[in-house]
Amino acid sequence: MSQDVERVYTVNLGKVLLSPNNQRAKRAVNVIKEFARHHLKIEQVKIEEDVSHLLWARGIKHPPRKIRVRMTKTDEGYVLVSKYEGEEESIEKEEEKTEPQKVEPSQVEPEKEEQSLKVEPEPAAKPEPAAKPEPAAKPEPAAKPEPAAKPDDDLNFSRKKTKR
Question: Radius of gyration of the chain from Cα atoms?
Answer without folding.
Answer: 36
